[in-house]
Each structure stands twice: as structure tokens, then as C-alpha cells.
Amino acid sequence: MHIKERKLIALLVIIVIALSLLYIYSSNVKPEKVNIGGVTRHIGDYVEVKGVVGYAKNITNGVLAYIYDEKFENKTILFIQFSKILYPGEVVIAKGQVINYHGSIEVVVHREGDLQIIAKYLELNLKEVLAEPEHFVGMHIKLRGNLSAMRISNYFEFTDGFNLIKVYVKNGYFGERNVYIKGYYEKGIFHAENISLQYNGTCVNLDELAKYEGKVVWIHGSIISYFYYGYLRDSLYSLKVVADKNLPSGYRVLEGEFIYNAYEAQYELKLE
Q1: Mean pLDDT taken over the chain
Q2: How open is the CA angle 228-122-63, to the nearest 5 degrees?
Q3: In this predicted model, what pLDDT tens digit does every residue of 179-199 receive, in sequence order?
Q4: Residue 256: closest CA among 52, 134, 68, 88
Q5: Ranges assigned E (strand) in 29-177
Q6: By C-alpha distance, which of 268, 263, 266, 267 is closest to 157?
Q7: Which of 13, 52, 107, 246 has the fewest CB atoms in 10 Å of its CB?
Q8: In whole angstroms, what is the distance from residue 252 CA to residue 149 CA?
Q9: Alpha-carbon torsion (167, 169, 171, 176), positive or negative
């Protein structure tokens, strides 16, 4: 055996032993519980942090996520070295080593057992959400309050199997899903004037509607989902709630995604 081969084998043995010792160490050492705002003072330490997921993205070798403290005053980065699906609004507890990666402070989570989702939805009240709504857009949240009687929405989602558009119909629509619609396309919305189960003329493809802006045309496709809407109220605060089914009115605990509806310029809770 050549000297170079012996050196390589020796190096591999050292690496295996080092990784084994690191695993044993991390398995037996209890992490120090640290507030997110204090993570920067623990570079090199094995810590445990609790926070709300504000952003998560799958990358080549794992997941990159930002987590915030409960008051959204501080945040830190989690580098999760395994595949994991995280949603904004989930509350997690993560254990890992704090490192400085090119000036960015990160908590590196090595094992699946070191990441725990303790709540799928961030529980809030209407006052908290509406005080600074921009903090919660895209998050999965839980709210309590009195829900008004729900009504059918004037909007529904429509597809030809490849493209998706939003359709406005005055006074709403609740009927067959595979339909022909007469109307005009304006500013990203198709305004329906007539909905029919049959039409023998030519239909415009959904991906070509922009060419016919403002002109009356026919389109054909399927309604993906109808929408019902109501309002969740708590004292002086109120928030529009959108769902694909009609929920009974009264005191409710609702879970969904907090969104900003650009078409109506308002915040909404979209139930899941």
C-alpha cells in the first residue's frame, strides 16, 4: 500500500471518528435555551430557540427559514440540513449550533429530531392582526370571534386546464362548473355578463385574453372553486373571511392564511 493511500485512509478514519464524537456530543449535551434576540451572543454554542416561521425556502441541501420572536421584534435564520416542509405562521422549536456564515448569523439544525413544530397556526386576536397586518401576510393564523352570516362571493376561480383567471359576476354564481362565459377582460379580471352550459361559437383562450382587453368575448373552462364570505368580529375589530363552503354564523375559531386581496384592496383570512 502506497504512503498516499495510507494517509488518505488515516484521514478518513479521523473524519469518521470526529463525526461520531460530534454526534455523541450533540446527542447528550443539552442545548442552552436562548431568546431569538440573543442568538448573536452565542456563536459556536449549541442552543435551543423558539419562534414563528416568517419565511421558508427549500434549497439544494436543505431548508432556509427565518423565524421571529412572538412580538416580531427580532429574527434569526435557521439552516435546516434536511428536507422539511414549513409554512409561515407555524411555531417551531429548533436546536442547533450558532454560526457566523459570511456575516450572517444562523442556527444550523442537523437532525430531524432537533426541529419540532409545536403549532400549525399562529394564534392571535383581531386587534393584534389589524394593528400591523403587513407582518402577518402569507402566514397561517388562528383567530376567534363572531362570524356573520356568509354570502356567496361575486368572484370565482376559472381554468381551462392550463391557465387560471379570476371571474367577477354580479350577485354571485353557484351552479354547474363546466361552463361558457360571455363577458370582457379588464385589469386582470374577467367580468361575466352571461354564463351558459352551451355555446356554438368561437371561444378565446384564457392565455390570450389580454389581447382582447375591454372587448366582449366568450371563454370556456371549469370553475375551480366558489367562494363564500363573511366577517369575523371581535369588539371594534372586523376582518373579511373567505371560504369555499358556507359556514354557520356565531362564535367561531377559524384557521387559515392571512392574505392581502389586491383586487379589493383589503386584508382577508382565507380559510383552508
Answers
A1: 89
A2: 105
A3: 999 999 998 999 999 999 999
A4: 88
A5: 32-33, 46-59, 62-68, 75-80, 91-101, 104-109, 115-119, 122-123, 140-147, 151-159, 164-168
A6: 263
A7: 13
A8: 12
A9: negative
